[in-house]
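Late entry, written up from scratch paper. The run itself happened at the end of the previous shift, but nothing got recorded in the book at the time, so transcribing now.
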Amino acid sequence: MSEDRTGQPKGWLGKLTQAFSDEPRSREDLLTDLRQATDDNLLDNEALTIMEGAMQVSDMQVRDVMIPRSQMVVVEADQTPREFLPVIISSAHSRFPVIGESPDEILGVLLAKDLLPLILEEGLESFDLKSKLRSATVIPESKRLNVLLKEFRVNRNHMAIVMDEYGGVSGLITIEDVLEQIVGEIEDEHDPEDDEGNIKPFDDNTFIVKALTPIEDFNEFFSVGFPDEEFDTIGGIVTQSFGHLPKKDETVDIDGFQFKILSADTRRIRLLQVVRHT
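Output as recorded:
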């Protein structure tokens, strides 16, 4: 590594090495050093976020980020293609658990790409669903995310079925769910676009609101006057009112509105249910 005239290493790597000249004694010390390095412009915010996410994953379990059983999109083994294709098309997922007589009976996983024979070779009536199933990977709720990510990579799996301590299905998790804890939300062409609207009425007094909705837009929609000097989004105001990063289903009342957390991860809230008190 080249040095300057003072004998100190040059470049960002050298500066980062100097920043860590006093070896961190704990994870908290390391995070403090990384944040200081970001303040000193040795790291950018995105790099810091990824590092923090990678460290956090080792402390998280599958139950913290899995898709709960009630939200799973499944195919029933006795369904015909005419019955399950609309579900597959509307969800736009690539993998689907196939269940037997009950949701706890997982027969395998159906890949959307394995349905191509419906178009290329076989007719709807002759399609044999069970012959297309892939083996399902089953894991406990307590498995740590860093261990699961390694298993996904080694075994080239992208989805696992999560079982509770009694042997019942409690949900599922994908490799994308794990990666999002490190790099943030991963959106694809099938995710809802922002221009579809940040505020959607559910009934007369209940609305589904994205946490990233600008306060100005929220005020205009509801004819209110939430301040926007300190925060840009309604999610910022809600988080401040909680006094901590809230979890799913937590609620708080603010100036005539009840805000319920519908979706959140370990870094931010994403979706809110807003009830306007009458």
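The chain is about 35% helix and 20% strand.
(Scratch paper discarded after transcription.)
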